[in-house]
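#structure-requests
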Amino acid sequence: MAEQQVQPLHNEKHANIKIQNGINIEFMKTQHLVPVVAHEFARIANEFPMAFVKNNETGQFQAVAMFGLEPGENLFVDGDKWTASFAPMATTRYPLGLVKHPEQDQFGIVIDEASPLVGEETGNALFENGEETDYLKRRKEALVSFIEFSQVTDAFTKFLADKELLVAQTLTVDIKGEKKDINGIYLIDEKKLNELSDEAFLELRKRGYLAPIYSFLTSTHQVARLARLKAQQA
């Protein structure tokens, strides 16, 4: 796979650069879990199962969409096409990204020059006469939103973890009559959720957490869809 060449975006250096819309299929082919933000849970739930994964070093949880049933597998990539009708924000930001300035509370925008979506021939111009185009301004806003959404999602996830609403779970799927276990993921404990005190439940509602929780719970049914796709591709 081509190495990334991530460089700070500059109006002179990248004066003639254009970006094609789309997702980096080469990269996505091997991604079976991708981070998601609470703001897109409702849309994710229509397509993919969601889970939480735990960082063993920090103990923090991260919400993810599942594109495959094992590492390195993405059942929604067919050749060079993305077959799902929706792609999470984490995948559509590319080939642009934000990096936080080490000293200041500012973000700088970076571009992966090696991306197949980047070139001078086709796509959306980033600069015109040294000024940012409307396209670039929109992309920048989306990057900033993603950072903000990620912070909200981290707070949401931490709240669930603190209230002990996340539980380690093994998902068992049936692929052509063969049972397969998926370990290492955490789901929202529906039983504990239903046993919350009125006060705790009210807090969930006040914080706006009920909608993403129910979307998350609904999404788990999509595991069967992954099993079907895997059986078809096998």
